[in-house]
Design brief:
alpha/beta, Rossmann fold, 2 domains, 6-phosphogluconate dehydrogenase C-terminal fold, 6-stranded parallel sheet, 9 strands, globular, PDH_N, prephenate dehydrogenase, 12 helices, prephenate dehydrogenase (NAD+) activity
């Protein structure tokens, strides 16, 4: 049982965590904190939180669990603001999509990685943002990755694991570096492709006609281009090394594909398409949980 949960960033991710724990009867009081007073007041009206404040230090005071759901670029500032008000036994965890930057921010603020900090990443979300987009079932049958370090308190890891399992999530653990490499390939790269494609088409002179005749496949593929631009800017900068490597590798693949089309090399095209279809059928559809995993595409503080 979490006696007092402080959520810094009561948007889709933070709000959904609050709703899920409330529905499960697994939390006593929930304190919401964020920059947008209007969003916080709405969270209070909806019953997502019990109290609101725009001061992180006030929000975490007496909290036994703190969840950070802020853009990566705001993580260090949030940690610094709460540092002197945290209870010694308080557990701090987060929902950031890049773990190396969160660990670096914590080390910069505290002088070391606090033993009660459990870096985490719920692989769930929609392209919508704000507390009104939150819902209790968001994490059901979704995956949550925790990236504890050698100095992380095992009891803190166990409590964060139990929190996410209460929300219906499947919890796994991996190293910080491995997490960032995996997410660069499976989440960050697809977002870059969607943003890049939509931006490229939008800058074409005939863009009105192009978008008018866009079919379902285009809408499905580019849905994530409606995600929070600020958050994705921060993700790109925080995971720039792993993401740059994936973009370079993908660029080589696209060059090969373009050359095959230019040469009318139907045999090579068929080889690429068949290999891709087989891989997706084998790994994606069979590995998908009851509800298909969605990338955490937006958040609002």
């Amino acid at each position: 049982m979490i006696e007092r949960l402080a959520i810094i960033g009561v948007g889709l991710i933070g709000g959904s965590l609050a709703r899920a724990l409330r529905a499960a009867g697994a939390v006593g009081e929930i304190v919401g904190c964020g920059r947008s007073l209007g969003n916080l007041e709405r969270a209070l009206e909806l019953g997502v939180v019990d109290r609101i404040t725009q001061n992180p230090a006030e929000a975490v005071r007496e909290a036994d669990m703190v969840f950070l759901a802020v853009p990566l670029g705001a993580m260090r500032g949030a940690l610094a603001a709460m540092r002197d008000s945290l209870r010694p036994e308080a557990i701090v965890t987060d929902g950031g999509s890049v773990k190396c930057s969160v660990v670096e921010d914590a080390r910069a603020v505290f002088g070391r990685v606090p033993p009660r900090l459990v870096p985490g990443h719920p692989i769930a979300g929609t392209e919508h943002s704000g507390v009104e987009a939150s819902f209790a079932e968001l994490y059901r049958d979704r995956r949550v990755i925790l990236t504890p370090l050698a100095e992380t308190d095992p009891e803190a890891v166990a409590r964060v694991t139990a929190m996410w399992q209460t929300c219906g999530a499947e919890v796994t653990a991996m190293s910080v570096a491995h997490h960032d490499e995996v997410l660069a390939a499976t989440s960050h790269l697809p977002h870059m492709l969607a943003f890049g494609l939509v931006d490229s088409l939008a800058r074409m002179r005939e863009n009105d006609e192009i978008f008018r005749y866009a079919a379902g496949g285009f809408r499905d593929f580019t849905r994530i281009a409606s995600s929070n631009p600020v958050m994705w800017r921060d993700i790109c900068l925080a995971n720039r090394e792993a993401l740059s490597a994936m973009l370079a590798r993908f660029g080589v693949e696209m060059t090969d594909l373009a050359e095959s089309i230019r040469r009318s090399d139907g045999e090579h095209l068929l080889e690429i398409f068949a290999r891709a279809k087989a891989a997706r059928d084998r790994y994606v559809d069979q590995a998908r949980p009851v509800h298909e995993d969605a990338d955490r595409s937006s958040s609002q503080t």
